[in-house]
Each structure stands twice: as C-alpha cells, then as structure tokens.
Amino acid sequence: MPTNDKNIMTRLYAVSACMFLFAAAVLFKLVNIQVVQGDKYKELALQLTEKMFTIAPNRGNLYSDDGSLLATSVSRYTIRFDAVTVSDADFKKYIVPLSDALSDMLGSSSSHYQQVLRKAKANKNRYALIARNLDYSEYMAVKDFPLFNRGPYKGGLIIEQKTVREHPLGKIAERSVGYENVDDNGYYSGVGLERAFGEYLRGVEGKRLKQKIAKGQWKP
C-alpha cells in the first residue's frame, strides 16, 4: 500500500476513534444524569415549578358588649379558567351557555365572555381571569355553571379564595375597631380593638401547593 494511502487510513482510524470516544462520553453522561442523578434533577425541577404558599387565616369575629358585630372575616373568590384542560368538543359545546350564565350573574354581555374564553383557548392560557371579588353565594353558583360544573380537570375551573375583613357598622366604629397587620418577619402592628385582642382573634395559617405555569404565574 502506498505511503499516502497509509497516512489517509491512519487519519481515518484516528478520527473514527475520537468520534467513538466522544459518543461514548456523551452516552455515559446521559446515563449518569438519568439513572445516577435522576432523582436529584427531578427534585430540582419540582422546586422550580412547584411551591408551597401560605394562606392567611380567618380572624375571629369582634363584638361590642351589647352583641353588635364590629368586625368579621368574609371570603371573596376569584374565578380563572384553564383552557388547556378542556377538550375542543366540550369547549365548543359549552362556551355559549357558559357565557350566558356568566353574563346573567356578572352583568357584562355574553359576547364579552365568549371573546375572553375563545382568546384563552387560542392562546392556551392556563390562568385566564374571568371574575374577581365574588361572594360565597356567587362562588357556589359559578361551580354549577355549564362546563365549570365538570371541575378543574375537565371544566378548567380554577377557584382562588381570600379572606377580607369587613366592618358592618362602617366608619361609625372604624377608629375604635382599628386593624392589625403582620410583616414578613412575623411582627404584628396595629391599633384599636383589633390590635388589643389580636392574639385571640388570629387564626392558624394554612398551606397550598401551587404550580408555576406560563408567564411566571402560579396556579393552585
């Protein structure tokens, strides 16, 4: 075999060996990540996409000495829509009756809610805002609306609850009733009866797991 041919073959063997070693190294790394360190990276991924949030507790009611209600905690609800969980067939079937029901309760036109829902479906929005600040009776009604009555996994219904403090007597006793706040370090501050009896009125915090979705939003 001529010398030039030998040199070419030697180079081919060297290149092939290098490529083989590189492929073997990549394969080893993949196996190491998936098998040896798989649990570690799965846990890291969960930490980035799932988070436990604190739910503010319900404060106790505050009464005057004659039994008048001075302050109470009430629940308010936000309704959102996960368009990804709803099948195309169900969406087409229920969008009009759902929009009609929302219109009857909330006041905006049925076409407005159809537009909101269609936009959410087209954009694969998993956290589209439908309504805010609903009271308990409205929340219970929404749960029975067409499509929403299929629940979160087939109907796309997302419910967020928050507790707000209300004063039935309005501004008449507002100064005496006062308020109490807590900062990120757990330090309480405030004025009036709410602060004076805070240790008796405070409830116990709850926890809720949420999943991070598109645009940095957290979904329950």
Task: Characterize the structure shown.
There is one protein chain. This protein has 220 residues and is of the alpha+beta class. The chain has two domains: 48 residues; 148 residues, 2-Layer Sandwich (Ribosomal Protein L30, Chain: A). It is built from eight helices and nine strands. The strands form three sheets. Strands 2, 3, 4 and 5 form a four-stranded antiparallel sheet that branches. A hairpin with a 5-residue loop joins strand 6 and strand 7. Helix 3 packs antiparallel against helix 4. The chain is flat and about 105 Å long. The termini are far apart. The model has no long low-confidence stretch (mean pLDDT 82).
Order of helices and strands: HHEEEHHEHEHEEHHEE
Structurally, the number of domains stands at 2
What is the CATH architecture term of the largest domain?
Answer: 2-Layer Sandwich
CATH class of the largest domain: Alpha Beta
Helix content: 40-55%
Low-confidence segments, given as residue ranges, are none
Largest sheet: 4 strands, antiparallel
SSE class: alpha+beta
**Count of β-strands:** 9
The shape, in one word, is flat
The number of helices is 8
Q: Give the end-to-end Cα distance, rounded to a whole number of Å.
A: 73 Å
Mean pLDDT: 82
